[in-house]
Amino acid sequence: MPDSPTPTSVPADHPFRRKGRSTDGLFRAFFAGNAGLTIVILVLIIVFLVREGAGFFPDYRKELVLYRKAGLEFVDLSRKDLTAHEQMSSLLNRAYYAQVNAACRTEFQRSQEVSAVISYVSDAVAPAQSALERVQERAGEEGVPKELQDSLSAKYKELLAAALAGKPGEGLPPTPHLSSEERRQLLSELEARDPLSSDDPPLVVALQEQLSAKQEQASAPLADFRAAIDAFADASLDLDTLVAETGDTVKATKEAATLHEIEIEKRATLLKAAASAKTEEAKAQFETEARESVTTEPVEFKTALQPVLDRTPDFKAANAALAAALAEVQRKLPASLEDPKAGRYLSAFRKAAGEYERELSDTVPAMAAWKHDAPVGLGSTIMGFITGRDWITGGEWQDFYGIVPLFTGSLLIAVIALSLAIPLGVGAAIYTNQLAGPGEQKFIKPTIEFLQAIPSVVLGFLGIAVLGTILQETSMKDAFSWVPGFPIQQRLNMFTAGCLLGLMAIPTIFSLSEDALNNVPSAFAEASDALGASKLQTIFRVVLPAAISGILAAVLLGLGRVIGETMVVLLVAGNRIEIPDFTEGLGVFFQPAHTLTGIIAQELGEVPFGSVHYRALFVVGMILFAIVLSINWTAQRLLHKFRIGHD
Amino acid sequence: MVSDSPSAAVPAISIENLRFQYGEKQVIHDVTLDIPSREITAFIGPSGCGKSTLLRCFNRINDRIPGARVTGGSIRVAGIDIARPDLDLQTLRRRVGMVFQKWNPFPKSIFDNVAYGLRIHGEKDRSALEERVEYCLRRVALWDDVKDRLKSSAFGLSGGQQQRLCIARTIATRPDIILMDEPCSALDPLSTLKIEELLLELKNDYTIVIVTHNLAQASRCSDKTAFFFLGKLIEHGPTTKIFTKPDQQQTESYVSGAFG
Ligand SMILES: Nc1ncnc2c1ncn2[C@@H]1O[C@H](COP(=O)(O)OP(=O)(O)OP(=O)(O)O)[C@@H](O)[C@H]1O
Ligand SMILES: [Mg+2]
User: Fold this and answer.
1) Per-residue model confidence as pLDDT tens digits over B49-66
2) Are B212 and B179 in contact (CB under 8 A)?
3) Which of A202, A308, B109, B207 has CA atoms 20 to 30 A from the CA of B159?
4) Ranked by mean pLDDT, which of A133-142, A191-200, A570-579, B16-25 comes out on top?
């Protein structure tokens, strides 16, 4: 070639020479921009969460300092005993009533069944009956016209006959606990009843008498127990008054201090405004306002607290009274109760008694050691948040932010959801992938994946309207009374929420498990078949173990979904902020609870912007974010390992 | 046919007029063939002529493939027609073991791989398992290489070692017949040699059917050879005869390397 080219460029006529300008760079920039933006947004979210949340701990600490200085903490030392005492006596009461009610269960059901029949019949005849009544009222001196009276009576008779034959609605309610003799008697009594009388039929009265007789009979041998419970419950009266009185004092101190603080702040704002005021006039105006803004004296915590501290001897006496009452009631408790549920409450009481006694004996030394000006560390504030057993907000006494109840709620619900979703999701995946024919596969996969498309609000709706009601009604049935926690008190509870969340987690677990099973090379299954393994042996000994890390990842991603889900738990979990009562055994799952996600959704809209409460919710959000992130991260790791294992 | 060994008198597998289809596509046409006991029979033929398909009929592993079915004729193993509906497939497969072209140990330890077949057939006794595993691994000349790492994953072995492990896994359940589909096609010459030695050693106890594209291998270690072409059995007989003076022209050109 005549012009020797530079070594870096291809000669112009060579086929390797690139033609035209490449657009690769543009595409590259576009996609890089998309990826970059996503990451920037993620970082911004984290920064935002941290910034809003970070202010929480110093603010909360300030609140806790005031809580201590004003003496609320001091009163709470005893108030805690009071609460424990109430719980203890409630345990005893529950044991007592469980025992009595168990003895009268049949009588109770009988009278309920009778009332159901009566109200069915009354509803049916209501139109004719009320017409009769109205006519009678208006009739006055000369009486009711004969024909009107007759036609209404006929109508009444007709309706009554239809009702007694069970025609309207779903028919006469069943009465499984009444003998057929009694049922017949009831119906004939109803038939004979005067349309205008509101008296109960004799059978009802008789049954009610039976019930109260039975109740009396059942409680007679428990009279000593009853007396012991009452004595125990009454032992807290002194402490109750004491806590109420001193509580008022310290609350006043706290309010005064808060007011003063607000005024000081207001003055500072006004002075700042004055400094930057445009005219002399405005400046003077601001300054006078600033001078007038502080109307209260700074609070002398020590003097304000003195009257409360002076009552320490009273506190001690009340404390001793409680301890004595505890010892007394323990001596008088029956050794055991017949009814299993009552027995469970009783033994729960016995178990808790030691703990309670220790708490009682700790109180007096704690009071002596308590100082209103001891510092509150940042560390203990953080610990108080993480291990705090109370989430109390918007009260006039003191707000506490402890996430343990929320965390327990989330955890228990996740346990229910997973124990439902793992067997169903993984089982369905195994069936679809290994056992089903191609036709079934085509039907099952999209159907299960369709579950994912149901909006969670709709599921929540289903939970409230259908599942909760069905569950509660079922739990009332005799046949299920052996199930722990039945009959269910609350229609909305962790179990319902867990079931729905399990439903939502099934598609995730199913699809990913199915993928994992699908990724197992068929050579493994073929080798196993060729060795004479049965279908199930091949599945459980070769295919499933080979897919296990993928399935675990699927379960973890399902868990992430369950923990992060908000709408269903908010609607269905019952939203009671309390650590569930584990003395119920497995029945604990049928209690309502609140969750990490639910609390944010419920409270964030209502709290004042920038308040401690607002920031606390952000910290909850951060914790939630961290949990879900680490779950997903672990799942990704497992999936990664799974893929590499098959290279 | 010349029948030079007495054991060949009772065929281990006898195939009569077998026809086989994948869906609508017929790939085996009227094959009739007896496979003698305690000998090595080699299947040779060009790619796609149905050797693997026929082999996979013997333990009915083709049942795994949707649409694959025998459409005529019969296969008898130990005198029993294996197409009978009341046949216990698991027992058949236990008696007729199979080694695949691509080695496929389970993602388990070396020990568990060999013990797998025993375990699924109900062997629980630990010492019996250990004894049998050691015996099988010795039999395939793998014991000395792996005896210190029985608990580690089978994937850590070389290709040739993994294939021998698969053979050990197959003989662990004491089959009568071993089917091998190109067991050496992915191995280096040295590993191939080792496996051929192993075959010669195993043939005292097992009937072996091997599919191979390696004509030298077929002539080195098989007693009988069957040549297939386009789904038909063209010729079969003692290996020396097939390779030196076959009856058919097609066989002659195939073994001399003229096509295939
Ligand atoms: N699963 C299948 N579905 C449909 N057709 C198949 C299937 N497996 C094999 N075939 C067809 O059946 C015929 C025989 O295949 P086969 O695998 O038995 O041949 P082969 O002799 O083993 O060939 P190679 O030597 O290449 O392994 C081929 O035409 C092939 O395309
Ligand atoms: Mg083949």
Assistant:
1) 999 999 999 999 998 888
2) no
3) B207
4) B16-25
Please tell me the distance from the alpha carbon of residue A484 to that of residue A586, in angstroms, as a whole number.
6
- In the reported structure, the alpha carbon of residue B48 is separated from the centroid of ligand 1 by a whole-number distance in angstroms of 5
Rounded CA-CA distance A384/A391 in Å is 11
Mean pLDDT value of segment B206-231: 92
Structure tokens at B55: 């082999």
Of B19, B20, B22, B217, the residue with max ligand 1 atoms within 8 A of its CB, to mutate for a pocket test, comes to B22
CB nearest B61 (choices: A524, A526, A541)? A526
Taking residues A550-558, report their average pLDDT: 90
Pocket around ligand 1: residues whose beta carbon is below 6 Å from it? B 22, 25, 27, 45, 47-53, 65
Three-state SS at B185: coil
Mean pLDDT estimate for chain A: 86
Is B111 among the domain residues?
Answer: no
What ipTM was reported for this prediction?
Answer: 0.89
Does B140 fall in a domain? no
Q: B6 falls in which pLDDT band (50, 70, 90)?
A: very low
Q: Which residue from A minimizes the CA distance to B117?
A: A531
* Amino acid identity at A141: E
Q: Is residue B112 part of a domain?
A: no
* 3-class secondary structure per residue, A362-378: HHHHHHHHCCCCCCCCH
Give the count of domains, chain B: 1
Confidence of residue A6 (pLDDT cuts 50, 70, 90): low
Give me ligand 2 centre to Cα B46, in Å.
10
Alpha-carbon distance of A116 to A173, in angstroms, equals: 7
Q: Measured between CA atoms, how close is B208 to chain A, in angstroms?
A: 15
Q: Is A530 on the interface with B (CB under 8 A)?
A: yes
B183 and chain A in contact, CB less than 8 A: no
**Rounded (10°) CA dihedral A41, A43, A45, A50:** -160
What's the domain range around B47?
13-103+176-255
Nearest to B106 among A530, A537, A542 (CB): A542
Would you say the pTM of this structure is higher than 0.80? Answer: no
Residue of B nearest to A525 (CA): B106
Q: Does residue B123 form part of some domain?
A: no
Nearest by Cα to B165 from B182, B179, B148, B150: B150
For ligand 1, the distance from its centroid to the CA atom of residue B1, given in whole angstroms, is: 29
Contact A453, A563 (CB under 8 A): no
CATH code of residue B81 = 3.40.50.300
Q: Say if CB A285 and CB A323 are below 8 A apart.
A: no
Cβ within 8 Å, pair A531-B91: no
What local confidence, expressed as pLDDT, does residue A3 receive? 54
Cα Rg of chain A (Å, integer): 36
Mean pLDDT of A484-496: 81
A546/B104 Cβ within 8 A: no
Contact residues on chain B for A528, CB-CB shorter than 8 A = 106, 116, 120
Give me the percent of chain A exceeding a pLDDT of 90: 19
